[in-house]
Amino acid sequence: xxxxxxxxxxxxxxxxxxxxxxxxxxxxxxxxxxxxxxxxxxxxxxxxxxxxxxxxxxxxxxxxxxxxxxxxxxxxxx
Length: 78
Description:
Blueprint: H1 2-11, H2 15-33, H3 38-44, H4 50-61, H5 65-70
């Protein structure tokens, strides 16, 4: 519990939020810099399924992974 509190005090987010944000950063880079399929990117970034990845991605980025790729976006979550 103390580790969790310390992490939150320093990072201003939970460990789960940090991991999710990091995974989305990696996914954004893979979507723009590779031709890997969205399914492979979901797996490479540690999301259980491509549908869950799509849901989380859309909630955060306000577009689907394919829309992000097709628009050539560089708006990577920080």
